[in-house]
Design goal:
It is a single chain. The chain is mainly alpha-helical and 172 residues long. Helices cover 74% and strands 0% of the residues. The protein has seven helices and no strands. Helix 6 packs antiparallel against helix 7. The radius of gyration is 20 Å and the shape is globular.
Length: 172
């Protein structure tokens, strides 16, 4: 999650692209809840608000809009962004979309583990209504996870094709 946020801070216009591309692929656009750490959530919220305004990107102006306890976190993310290897904008876009998908897949896997424990507890206590409810949530999460895994594979193929030099003999 730090990588994704660092990339967005390095090039905030990519947030608009990421939201549009996610929507085009039938994936929810990035939201603050995608980040586990509260500091990252707050920085993301502030970034979304900043991008929604008319101001040109100015990291110092952005930092002024944050509460002071987030300045250190922002500095760390900006330092991480500065250390990233250079890449084409197209590669960066696909990589960011992959990271968003990966974050969501990891979250769903974790949620499903918790739901399985809740189902077991509800079964032991004989609460059939809770079992049905948790099963429905679990099934929804599994369908979403399957969709995200398919999306992940497709994005991985895009990156592999972009990174592979054409080889062979040209046939006319």
């Amino acid at each position: 999650e730090e990588y994704l946020l660092a990339c967005l801070l390095q090039n905030p216009d990519l947030l608009v692209w990421l939201a549009a591309e996610a929507d085009a692929r039938k994936i929810a656009p990035p939201v603050a809840g995608d980040w586990q750490h509260v500091e990252n959530q707050e920085i993301f919220r502030a970034l979304r608000l900043y991008i929604a305004g008319d101001a040109h990107w100015d990291v110092e102006l952005f930092q002024e809009g944050l509460t002071s306890h987030l300045h250190g976190r922002l500095g760390g993310l900006l330092a991480e962004a500065a250390m990233l290897p250079p890449s084409s904008i197209e590669d960066l876009r696909i990589e960011m979309l992959k990271v968003l998908v990966r974050i969501r897949m990891d979250r769903l896997k974790s949620d499903n583990t918790h739901i399985k424990f809740l189902i077991d507890d509800a079964q032991r206590s004989g609460d059939l209504e809770a079992v049905r409810s948790f099963d429905a949530i679990n099934n929804h999460n599994l369908r979403t996870l399957s969709f995200l895994q398919d999306t992940w594979v497709g994005l991985t193929r895009v990156l592999a094709v972009q990174g592979r030099a054409e080889k062979g003999v040209k046939i006319r």
